[in-house]
Design goal:
This protein has 2 domains: 1-150, Orthogonal Bundle (Arc Repressor Mutant, subunit A), CATH 1.10.10.10; 153-227, SH3 type barrels, CATH 2.30.30. It is 44% helix and 21% strand. The chain has 9 helices and 10 strands. The longest helix has 23 residues, at 73-95. The two termini are 36 Å apart.
């Protein structure tokens, strides 16, 4: 799916594609029910039905009566391109311009519509090719056969000397707040300094050392492990 086809789409159509993708990320099974899509978009089901049939004619989605909607191959490639643009801008706006996450998300949503593949590639290189945005969602990467999402791994699977970017923290508020105070959260790169016999880890995060229990390391998913 080319950038030219993306330009020919309305912002409303792009919003539908992104919303379907986000529902999938939240765990909704594909095909996504139109009622769930209508609820997420805060629009009437009849409006969703009309738009989905229009997008089906464009070859972006496939509609299954009484079941829901799912992406075609070209539709999925296109939505991953859009998400790549949005999430790269979010990282830039928060990291380099010190914007709030809420403000960055709103502006990134506007910037995605006027971004090209070349600009996105330059932005990704400037940012050090981040694997995740500050919401903890993966940023689609460019591969030879198109866009792909990196499947994360657990922090506890890393070896001594490897570094990776935190993607998500799947823990309760107490643990999440503790990790945040220690400088560990989505978008932050950590490096494994040592591993204890019980699975606990000594990490380097933002130029400081942090010791985490095995229980905590198993609650953190990371992406793009590297050897330092």
């Amino acid at each position: 799916m080319s950038s030219q086809i993306k330009k020919e789409m309305s912002e409303n159509e792009q919003m539908y594609l992104v919303t379907i993708a986000k529902l999938e990320e939240q765990g909704y099974e594909s095909p996504v029910a139109l009622s769930e899509l209508a609820n997420a978009l805060s629009v009437l089901p009849v409006s969703v039905n009309q738009m989905i049939h229009k997008m089906e004619k464009s070859g972006l989605v496939k509609y299954y009566p009484y079941k829901g909607v799912e992406f075609t191959s070209s539709g999925r490639q296109l939505v991953m391109r859009i998400l790549r643009y949005r999430r790269l801008w979010e990282v830039f706006l928060v990291k380099d311009l010190s914007m709030s996450l809420e403000g960055a998300d709103a502006l990134a949503c506007n910037l995605e519509h006027i971004t090209s593949d070349d600009v996105a590639d330059r932005l990704s290189e400037f940012l050090g090719h981040p694997a995740v945005c500050y919401h903890g969602n993966p940023i689609p990467q460019v591969e030879e056969d198109g866009m792909t999402l990196f499947e994360g791994m657990m922090l506890s699977d890393l070896k001594i000397g490897e570094s990776a970017q935190v993607m998500q923290v799947n823990a309760d508020a107490v643990v999440t707040n503790f990790l945040s105070n220690e400088g560990i959260g989505p978008g932050i790169r950590v490096r494994v300094l040592a591993i204890g016999n019980s699975g606990d880890m000594l990490l380097e995060s933002q130029k400081r050392s942090v010791h985490l229990s095995a229980e905590m390391t198993s609650a953190i998913s990371v992406g793009w492990p590297k050897n330092n």
